[in-house]
């Protein structure tokens, strides 16, 4: 199943292309943050934001409390591990 999973933007890796490093439960992955950068603000302004991550994109901003509640529910349902494994595999394929 593919779903949006909460992650925190921790570093900008390519300002021009609006790419950032996001951490999801200890797994780090580069994603596009164009959808969550506020109009008129530099891409660096989104460091620290929590967002729903889906197929390599930060789709929408969420607050930290909502992110933690969502992660807890997904963990209870057993969905987090599957998504983290998929993220990890996709990151490894980029290194090849």
TrEMBL record:
GO BP of this protein: protein maturation
InterPro entries registered for this protein in UniProt: Hydgase_assmbl_chp_CS, Hydrogenase_HupF/HypC
GO MF terms held by the record: carbon dioxide binding; iron ion binding
PROSITE patterns found in the cross-reference section: HUPF_HYPC
Any Pfam family hit: HupF_HypC
NCBIfam families to which the protein is assigned, alphabetical: hypC_hupF
Family: Belongs to the HupF/HypC family.
Protein name: Hydrogenase-2 operon protein HybG
Organism: Hydrogenovibrio crunogenus
